[in-house]
Description:
- By secondary structure, the chain is α+β, with helices and mostly antiparallel strands.
- It has one domain.
- 41% of the residues lie in helices and 12% in strands.
- It is built from 12 helices and 7 strands.
- Strands 3-4-5-6 form a 4-stranded antiparallel beta sheet. Strands 2-1-7 form a 3-stranded mixed beta sheet, with helices on one face.
- Helix 2 packs antiparallel against helix 3, helix 4 runs antiparallel to helix 9 and helix 8 packs antiparallel against helix 9.
Amino acid sequence: MTAPALHIALAPDGPAIRRPAPPPVEALLLGRTPEEAAAMLPRLFNLCRAAQGLGARIALGLAARPEDIAALRQEILREHAIRLFVLWPRRLGLPPAPLPKPDDLRQAVFGPGQAPPDPAGLRAWMAAGAGVGRVFQAIADAFAPGEAVAQLPAPTAVSLGRAVAQENSLWARHPNAPLLDAVEAEWGRGPLWRALARLVDLDACLRGALDLEPRSQDGLTIVAAARGSYALSARVADGRVTAFARHTPTDHLLAPGGAFDQAFATLPAARQDRAPLLVDILDPCVPVDIVEAAHA
C-alpha cells in the first residue's frame, strides 16, 4: 500500500502541516479469516512488518509463533542501525557506512566503550567521534537547546488505543534512563533527546533487556516496534473478521498538538533549513513533501 504524503509548507511565521488521511486498513481485512488477516496486514506496509504481524496475530486471537519475537528483535535493531549508519549521516552531510554485522553492531555503534555514554561523558563521546558519536555531535550542532522540542504525556494502555497526542516514542520504553533525563534537562525534548532514545533502545535490545512480549488489556493488544508501540484491536465472529482497528506511533506523532506540531512550532524560522533533518529524526513513517513558502 502506497501511503499518502505528509505535506509541510515552510513559512516565516511557521509551517503549515497537512496530514494524510489514514489508510483504510479495516476495510481491507473485514470478512477475512483471522489467519488471512494476520498474514495480510504486514504485507500492506513497508515498515514494521514483524511488529504489525505479531500484534495482528494476538489481537485476532491467534497464538504467537516461536520465531515472531526473534523477528521483532531483529527488525528493531535493523531500523535503529539504518538511521545511525545510513539515513542520519546522509542527511547531516556525513559519509554513510555499511550496516555492521550483528556481532559487530555494539562496537560499531558505541566504539571502544561498547556501551552508551553516561550523562557526564556524553559531550566527550560525541566530540571524540567514537562509534556513531559524530552523528550525534552533528545533531547537537544542528539544533540549539530548546529548539524543535515537544512536551507530551507518557502513553498509557488506554491512550495508546486513541489517536491523540502523546509521547509514544522510544522514550516511553526508557522513561527513567539517566542519559535521556540529563539531555532533557539541558536541551529539552528535542532532536538530540529523540535521537539518543534510539541509542538507549538499541543498547537495551542488544542486552536482551527489552520486553518484546505483546500484552493485552481490555480488548487492546500492544506490541513494541522500532519507533514506539502499536495498539490493535479486533473482533471475530463465525471465523471472520468483523472489526479491526490499529493505532500507530505515526498516529500519535501526527495527532493535532502532538510531537510533530510542537517540534515544528518551536523550530525557529532561521533554522527551517533543518526541517528535513527534523523529519528524519521524528520519523513519521510516511512520505513527506517539504516546500518553501514561495512554492506553498
